Amino acid sequence: MPANSVIIGGGIAGLSAAWELHRAGRPFLLLEAAAQCGGAIASRPRDGFLPEAGPESFLAAKPAAAELCRELGLGDDLIPPLPNPAGAQVWLAGRYVPLPAGWRLLHPSQLPPLLDSPLFTPATRTAFADHWNDNTTPPADTESVADYLRRRWGREAGQEIADHVVGPLLAGVYGGDIEQLSAAAAAPHSATRGGGEPVREPNAPMFLTLRTGMSSLVEALLRQLPAAAIRTGQPVTAVEAFDGGYCVRLGSGESLTAAAVILAAPAFRAAEILPPLDPALAAELAAIPYASSLNLNCAFRTAPAVPAGHGFLAVGAAPLLACTFAHQKFAGRAPAGAALLRLFYSDATCAWPDARILAQARRDLAACCGITMAPDWCELQRCPRALPQYTLGHARRQAAIALALTRHPGLHLAGNAYHGVGLPDCIASGRAAARAPR
C-alpha cells in the first residue's frame, strides 16, 4: 500500500494540512485546480495601497492562525487594529449608532451599554433588563437564529435584535438568512448570554492581520513547503478505493495512489469527486448550501472626509451589507493622506454587470459616508459559492458525514463547510486532518 498522503485543494486548509505533514516529516502531494494556491486569500498591493480581495484579518481569540504565523516566522508581522474610540458602528435610519460594547454575535455580554443604546427601542431595552438573567434553553440544531432570538428576548424585542444587529453581523460571516441559519451551528459559542468569541485577555485585540497583507501567510507557506510537493493547475475528477488506500484521478488522465486523502476543497467540489467511492457521502456533502458574495475596494489618493471608526454594518441599505474603512482599521493600508474603503454586497449582486455595481457603490458612499468624489480606482471581487451555509440541520449533516468517513480509513475533510468558517477554523481543520490516523 502507498505511504503518502494526497491533499486535494490548495486553499489555507489544504496548505495548513501540508505544513502539518511537512513538520512531521511525512510525504505528501498537494493538488490545486487553480493556477495558484491561496484560495480566497488575496492581497493586491497597488500604488501604495494594500487592498484585500479576501479575508482582511482573523479572530485573535482562536489561536490557530496566530500560531501558524509564528511557526512560519511571521510573528513580528502580526498587527492589531488601529486605536479608534468609535470602533464598529451601525448605519441605521440615516445615522451612525455605535455597536454596544461587548456584543458577541448572537448576544450582548454587558447589560449597561444596552440600556441607552439608540439601536433599540425602549421596549427592547426593557426586554434586555427583564430577561437578562433568564436561564434560556440553548438552541437546538432545528432552531433558526431568528427563532432563537425571539424565544430568548420575546417576539418583538428578538425581531428587533435580529434586524438591527445579529442579522447584519451574520450576513458578514455567512451571507445567509438568519431565518434559515441554525443557531446552534452558526454561532456555537454565542448561544447563551455572555457567550461569543472564545475568552480573550483584557485589552487583547479582537482581530489580527499581517503587516504586509494576508497573502503573506500563503507566501510564507509556499516558501517553506517543498515546491515539488505542490502541483497547481491539477483538477481532480475522482477518488476511488485502491489496494487498501486510494486512487486519485486527475483531469489530465493521470492517476495517483495514496494511503490517505485530505479533501480540502469546498464541500460541493468534494461531492463531485467522491461518488465513485461513496455516493451517500457525496450526497451529504452536496446538501451543504453555499452563498456568494461580492466586495469592492475603492481607493482615494486624497482622502475624503470619512466617518470615525473602523467601518459600519448597514441596516436597511440593501444590497449593501457593510463597509470597512481599511485605512482607519489597519496600518499600512493606504498612503498618508489617502483613503481605502471596502464595501461588501449581498449574494444577488454577483450577477450584476460591473457598471451597475460601481454605480451602486457611488450611491452608497454618498448616502452613508457623504462621499461624492469619484474613487481614483476600484477593484471588484466576485466570490461565487464562497460561503457555506450552516442551515437548519447542519449538526445532523455533520454527524452523517462523520459516520460515513468511518467507512473510509485515511479519508479526511478540511475547510470551512464543517465546524467553523473563519481563517483560524480552516487552519485548525487542515492541521487536524493531517494529524488524524491513517
Description:
It contains 13 helices and 20 strands. It is an alpha/beta fold and 438 residues long. It folds into three domains: 5-41 and 213-288 and 391-435, 3-Layer(bba) Sandwich (FAD/NAD(P)-binding domain); 88-190, Orthogonal Bundle (protoporphyrinogen ix oxidase, domain 3); 290-388, Polyamine Oxidase, Chain A, domain 2. Helix 1 (12-23) crosses helix 13 and helix 8 runs antiparallel to helix 9 (279-286). The radius of gyration is 22 Å and the shape is globular. Mean pLDDT is 94; it is low at 190-197.
CATH topology of the largest domain: FAD/NAD(P)-binding domain
What is the overall pLDDT average?
94
Share of helix among residues? 25-40%
Q: Under the CATH scheme, which architecture of the largest domain would be assigned?
A: 3-Layer(bba) Sandwich
The largest sheet is: 7 strands, mixed
The strand count comes to 20
The domain tally reads 3
| Class per helix and strand makeup | alpha/beta
Strand order of the largest sheet: 6-5-16-17-18-15-19
Number of helices: 13
Radius of gyration in whole Å, from Cα? Answer: 22 Å
